[in-house]
Amino acid sequence: MESSKSLAAVLIVLFLAMTAIETVPVVQAQECGNDLANVQVCAATVLPGSGTPNADCCAALQSTNKDCLCNALRAATSLPSLCNLPAIDCGIND
């Protein structure tokens, strides 16, 4: 279970890093980085079987810029192709 929490934390840090290197103005990247850092309270919630998010997670999501969150997710899903690996298809519609 501890390794699952560590994996979730690594994924969130990865989202932050990918957002920061996108070709957007520095101010917007910093704002996205701050927004996404606040979402770290949701790390345990993204693990399978973790149940419903707590109030802190929901508040962080509500205050997060939706474009920042979507761009981070897009960047994360592009990683396999950047590493010459097959695309990941989780069966989730956009």
From TrEMBL:
Keywords: Signal. The keyword Signal applies. Residues 32-90 form the Bifunctional inhibitor/plant lipid transfer protein/seed storage helical domain. Residues 1-29 form the signal peptide. InterPro entries: Bifun_inhib/LTP/seed_sf (IPR036312), Bifunc_inhib/LTP/seed_store (IPR016140). PANTHER family: BIFUNCTIONAL INHIBITOR_LIPID-TRANSFER PROTEIN_SEED STORAGE 2S ALBUMIN SUPERFAMILY PROTEIN-RELATED, PROTEIN YY1. This is Bifunctional inhibitor/plant lipid transfer protein/seed storage helical domain-containing protein. It comes from Microthlaspi erraticum.
